[in-house]
Amino acid sequence: MAAKRRIAQGTRWMQAFMAAPLAAGLLLSGCNTANKAQSSGDITGSLQDGSERDKALHQASAHWANRFAANPKDKTAAVNLSRVLRAQGKKSQAVILMRQAIVHHPRDTDMQAELGKALADAGQNAEAQATLEKLMASQRADWQLVSSYGTVLDQMEKHGQAREQYQKALALAPNEPSVLSNMGLSYALDGNLPEAEKTLRLAAAQPRAETTVLENLALVLGLQGKFEEAEKVARAALPDNQVSGNLSYLKQMLSQPQNWAKLQALEAKNKAAKHQ
Residue 188 and residue 213: Cα distance in Å, rounded? Predict the structure, then answer.
């Protein structure tokens, strides 16, 4: 248990990235993009440059915020603004927004789904679980909904059950990088770093993988002491100062012999369990 807690400390910020893919389709370059997002509901995609992504998210946030302010009953604006807020890490704001917006559409499944995802991202696990389970029981769940439910279970330390949900999501959306990334983080939180690395490598190899997948892979590599490779992967996703800070923390944590021993003991235990 001590080793698991040590790994959990090293992976504490990874949980912030456990979510359905967000925002790239919301990164507006003009009215045509906005209209496409409204009509298709497709807001997924990838951006490899973090600064470009942040700039586009800011533009998307302004667009949907203005539209929602003009008409608080606009369902499309509410859902898309919530998704942008979640992508920006403004999780509590997304929950507040959806609580306000859903009053106008109390039985709308899209609104209920977005509220459930926002609650899951914000760590409000009990309410998120109840909301998502009720919704999944009443309709055919999409892969994003199933994956969000998995993140709730992971945050409740039900990692095996969480991965069952990710497998269901992957059956609906094969090789979806965000789901693979969530599964990789689940393995890491469960103490199985080799399997976490394997799964995150698969996620990173997908054409639509976002930079958060690379960040998670870099962290798992660092937790295993593979600092040179971790740095190489991280520099493709993060500013230099953030890369240096994260790696310094990991090196400090793992430089203590007892921490290495704990990680090695946990890995040996995991391998032994597989052969039983």
Answer: 13
